Structures are given as structure tokens and as C-alpha cells.
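in:
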């Protein structure tokens, strides 16, 4: 059934304050804000919810009881089947996959390992969907009263006041992280794996205003994607430097591994020197090259033969307080495959896990201080026509039950040093730490 009605109008205002205004309005219990390619989408309320754990995929339609079905085989395909079965024409879905979703993918699961616990994916088909870009605003809603209220809010004057941020010290617990890096280097030198990303958490000593943090942080960052979400008690605001995978409705596939990092934003001369060092450092070049090679191998598993290639090899992408080596890996989806197959083929991102993936995941589960949750998972949008866009969850603020934190990692290879990898985490955390807004 088709349940949506659209209304559009022109808007000359900066989209960001409009987006934040809708997030603050209290209209939606759950919502996802997703920015991609110059367009912001606010997906509010749940016309339908699809979630997945290690055993079941659960579907809830508004006003109806939850339906739980045991799934087998591919977890990404289980999500696809659940979405395709919804009685909603022209649906779009928004939500997240946690990093531990990787523990459900057969090719990555070590023999004898336990299945990850808890909810590992959650998607909503929104009741109301607002798209804002330079051409104007489109409001798409299944609720007439909600559509009217959203239109009213969007046409009201925007509050010009930007909230004040509180800086966070990102250098806490350096010694513990250095010790874990040293252990990983030993394991790499013993041939257990080639590369692993180890992360560390920085606690925020107050509750964060997530919408305010998103507004201030977005103005201070240059992300590939940005997002703000509140779903079932989980909150996050992030400025993703990297696309895990994009698949359009015609089956064109793109992934963009970023590996190799130096600081950015310290002045023209310092930035140029850091860039030159990044482009010539053997450790950084090796880390990037093996990531690109692995990304090609992953796409070849789901793309037509001969279509996988690399564009803009080892270009530079500036993302907030850091600059990265970046390459585009592209292909054309095999006719027997779906965008969800492509997502599962590249998940978790090589640049947030390691090489080989199975062995690096084992190392992460042993050496990372806590389970990652949403960190280094994905925030994504998916559509009934097969299109899918998944952003890597990095450079983000996380909050649950009033507790907020930051998290960042670094890629460890045989030539890594604990001190340099700790500094890299500080550089990455500095893309977010200055922009955290304290809740009133």
C-alpha cells in the first residue's frame, strides 16, 4: 500500500539549522538524520521497525504487535527480506549496524566463537521523511497532522544562536593504549595477521546535548557523511570520514578505504609538511595499499568479472582535524547479487578492522578494551529500488542512559610504534572533542 503524501517548497536557509530544529522539536521518539552528497534527510518516527540479533529478525508495523522470525544464512539478506516484505510501497529505511554484526557473517566467524549478544541492527521506515538541499525542501509523510506541524516548523524563523561547546581532554589513559598497541605489533611480527585497528574510549564527564553537538561539530568538520540519531535509547552524532559502500539503483558499487593519517588544520606550512610526510611514509603507504588490495578482493566477490577497479589511488582527503590517504574502489554488481550482499562483503570496513579480517577481528575482541557497539559499525540508508548508502561510524559522540563518550582507533602494522599510534588517536578525537555541547 502507498501511505505517503509529499509536499515541497523552496528554502533559502542553511539546511543545518533546519535539520537541528526538527531533531529538537520532540515530534519523533526515534529519528535518523543522514547527510549525503549535499542533501540532508530527517527520517522521523517509525512506520515500521526492523531489528536483528543473533537468532531473530523482528518486524513491527505501527500499531501492531512485533513479529519475530528466526533467520539463517546471511544476516544482511535477512534484513533485506524483512524490508521487502513490508506492505509499504516506495519505502526508504534508515538505521544502524553495530560492529558486532560482523560476528554473524559466516566467513568471519572463528570456529567455536560465541555469537554476539544483544541487538546488532535496527532500521526504521520513517513515518515522516524530510529532504533538504539547495533546491528546497520535500516533506513526505504518512501522518497528515505531523506533516502540517513539520511544515509549520520549517517555515518559522530559525534561531540564530549556536550552542557553546565544552572541550574534552583526549589524552587520558595513554599508557594502557600503548601497551595494547605493543602487544598487537608483537602478534603481527609473529605472522598472526597483517594489520589490526585498536581503539580507545574517552569518557565525557557530563550528559551531552546531541543535537547541539551535531550542529557545532558539523560546522567544524568536512565529512564524507554526517549523521545524528536517536533509536531505542541509543544516541550518536557523527562526521564520518569514509563511505563503507554505496550502491545505486543501477548496481554501481563504490567503497572508499581511508588508511594513513596525519594532522590537519595547523596552518598552511604545517599541513603541507604533514601531507608530504604522509605520502612518503613507508608505514602509511603500506597500510593504505594493503587496504585497497583487500577492498578490491571483497568487491570481486559480488561484482561482475572485470568491473572492479581503482580510481584516484592514494589521493588526499581532508576530514576535520586530520588528512588521510584515500582511494576509490568501484565495480558493477553481479545480476544475482543485491546491495545488501555488497554491504556484507565489505563489512566491517577494512579500515576499522584489519587484514585478514577474521584474524584481525579475533585480535580486536581480545585487545580492545570493551565491545565496540555502534563505533566502527555503519549508519545507513536503503531504498526499495535497491540503492544503499552506508557510512562508517567514526568521528562520533555516543550516548546511552545519560553516559556519553568518544572513541577512536589507529591501524597497527609491523612498523607501528605505540607512541605514534596513540598520537593518531588524539588527532582523530580532536575532530570531535572540541565540539561537545553540554546538556542543559
Amino acid at each position: 500500500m502507498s501511505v505517503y503524501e509529499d509536499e515541497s517548497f523552496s528554502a533559502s536557509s542553511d539546511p543545518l539549522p533546519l535539520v537541528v530544529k526538527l531533531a529538537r522539536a520532540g515530534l519523533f521518539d526515534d529519528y535518523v538524520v543522514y547527510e549525503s552528497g549535499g542533501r540532508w534527510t530527517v527520517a522521523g518516527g517509525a512506520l515500521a521497525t526492523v531489528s536483528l540479533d543473533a537468532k531473530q529478525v523482528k518486524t513491527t508495523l505501527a500499531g501492531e504487535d512485533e513479529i519475530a522470525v528466526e533467520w539463517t544464512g546471511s544476516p544482511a539478506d535477512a534484513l533485506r527480506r524483512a524490508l521487502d516484505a513490508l506492505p509499504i510501497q516506495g519505502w526508504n529505511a534508515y538505521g544502524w549496524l553495530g560492529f558486532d554484526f560482523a560476528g554473524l557473517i559466516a566467513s568471519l566467524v572463528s570456529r567455536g566463537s560465541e555469537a554476539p549478544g544483544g541487538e546488532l541492527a535496527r532500521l526504521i521506515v520513517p513515518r515522516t521523511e524530510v529532504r533538504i538541499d539547495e533546491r528546497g525542501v520535500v516533506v513526505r509523510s504518512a501522518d497528515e497532522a505531523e506533516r502540517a506541524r513539520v511544515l509549520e516548523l520549517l517555515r518559522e524563523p530559525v534561531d540564530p544562536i549556536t550552542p557553546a561547546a565544552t572541550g574534552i581532554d583526549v589524552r587520558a589513559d595513554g599508557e594502557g593504549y600503548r601497551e595494547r598497541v605493543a602487544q598487537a605489533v608483537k602478534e603481527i611480527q609473529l605472522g598472526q595477521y597483517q594489520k589490526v585497528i585498536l581503539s580507545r574510549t574517552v569518557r565525557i564527564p557530563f550528559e551531552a546535548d546531541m543535537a547541539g553537538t551535531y550542529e557545532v561539530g558539523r560546522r567544524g568538520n568536512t565529512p564524507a557523511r554526517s549523521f545524528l540519531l536517536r533509536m531505542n535509547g541509543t544516541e550518536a552524532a557523527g562526521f564520518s570520514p569514509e563511505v563503507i559502500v554505496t550502491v545505486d539503483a543501477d548496481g554501481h558499487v563504490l567503497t572508499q578505504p581511508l588508511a594513513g593519517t596525519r594532522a590537519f588544520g595547523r596552518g598552511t606550512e604545517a599541513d603541507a609538511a604533514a601531507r608530504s610526510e604522509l605520502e612518503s611514509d613507508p608505514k602509511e603507504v603500506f597500510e593504505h595499499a594493503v587496504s585497497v588490495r583487500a577492498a578490491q578482493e571483497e568487491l570481486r566477490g559480488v561484482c561482475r568479472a572485470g568491473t572492479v577497479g581503482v580510481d584516484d589511488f592514494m589521493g588526499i582527503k581532508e576530514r576535520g582535524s586530520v588528512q588521510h590517504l584515500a582511494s576509490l574502489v568501484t565495480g558493477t554488481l553481479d545480476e544475482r547479487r543485491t546491495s545488501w550482499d555488497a554491504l556484507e562483503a565489505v563489512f566491517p570496513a577494512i579500515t576499522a578492522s584489519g587484514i585478514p579480517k577474521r584474524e584481525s577481528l579475533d585480535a580486536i575482541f581480545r585487545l580492545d578494551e570493551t565491545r565496540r557497539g555502534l563505533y566502527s559499525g555503519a549508519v545507513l540508508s536503503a531504498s526499495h529500488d535497491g540503492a544503499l548508502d552506508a557510512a562508517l561510524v567514526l568521528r562520533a559522540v555516543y550516548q546511552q542512559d545519560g553516559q556519553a563518550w568518544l572513541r577512536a582507533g589507529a591501524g597497527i602494522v609491523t612498523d607501528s610504534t605505540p607512541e605514534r599510534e596513540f598520537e593518531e588517536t588524539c588527532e582523530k578525537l580532536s575532530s570531535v572533542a572540541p565540539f561537545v555541547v553540554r546538556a542543559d
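note: Residues 262 and 323 are 5 Å apart (CA to CA).
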